[in-house]
Amino acid sequence: MTRKVAVIGMGHVGATVAHYLVACGFTDDLALYDTNEAKVRADALDLRDAMANLPYHTNLTVNDDSQLADCDVVISTLGKSKLVDTPDHDRFAEFKFTRTQVPLVAKKLVDNGFHGKLVDVTNPCDVITSMYQKLTGLPKEHVLGTGTLLDSARMRACVGEALNVDSRSVVGFNLGEHGNSQFTAWSTVRVLGKQVVDLAKERHVDLADVEERSRQGGYMVYKGKKYTNYGVATAAVRLTNALLSDARTEMPVSNYREEYGTYLSYPAVVGRDGVVEQLQLDLTATEQKKLATSAKYIKDRVKAEEQRAAQAGN
Question: Which residues belong to any copy of the Lactate/malate dehydrogenase N-terminal domain (predicted)?
């Protein structure tokens, strides 16, 4: 079966996603889109040249809307990261740009008959994922955001460093918004066969410090180079591969949770049909409260945007 993916937005993240897909042979056909025609054509040419030294071939197209009709996965990576250069590094700062562009992309998807799975990386991730679902009319389980898949990876890296083990040996989740209200659900984190809260006591590890370092990870990357790309691009490709291969992988991605009435990050099993199963974690009372607070924050921002859009339409 031929695998076909589209990347919309060829900035730092989109270009990294495209390169990862091509270099690892994860897709047979790759459609690239960007409003900057010169940039996206240059990226396509660069990727074409790279293929001569790769063991895989990928068919590339540029800004051809007709290609969207039979894409298995569309990845939205459009954005304007420089807007996040604020004192609190709030990803909602990008909303002033992305809320105007996402409806245009959604219309393009609808007009060209796209009926595959949509992976959103565009910030603010949970709100934009919700917008894409409503604007495209795609089933909720077919529209997902990378959400805290990246935040959880940062947490696992920091826990691994604190305990001197590979981050892949750490299991657990950050939940809620991909933003300032997300948190580490320590009750879900296990490493070396133990609950991390117990192991931390044994080894005198301050989990509050670990959580703060993982929270600051993205800001430290941004501070150094004024954008982030490798971590989030890898999260996007991992999610895309789970969809393409029907992997049925458990991962903390932004998916619609009926009990909260919004998209937010919570572990789900992802396969070819999108979210094929939702987990129900046994969280502590404190974690449940934090998750509810994060959900309310997301819903309030979605509601505010819907009201703004309605007023603009009058």
Answer: 4-145
